[in-house]
Amino acid sequence: MMRSKRYKVQKESVDKVCEQIAMTYGMSDSLVNSGLLSQVSSLSIQDKQCLLRYISEEVEMERQEEDEWDRQDTSNLEPYTLEELHSRINESHQQYLRGEYQTEAEVREELKREFQWLQ
Which residues of the chain have pLDDT under 50? Predict the structure, then answer.
């Protein structure tokens, strides 16, 4: 006579996480909520590899930039006095009133040109 096997039903455990949560652990809420992750899953393998290479190069470039800033010698810098700070604030305000300012995009472009040697 053949007996049927009985399988134990696993009890739910509170020390397990679902795969989706585990995959997004450490990511910022803005990344998780951006919809980017769902777009990545629909990419071809080749596109995913290209995206990985692109992200890896971006990360490496940012690390090099951070390293360059960390190596800067700041031992000879003197802090500003309150008078100097107030003077700089007043001058900035006057420049703003005269229309002598740049947009964020213009500043980013200028910084990119200025620090191109870091790339």
Answer: none
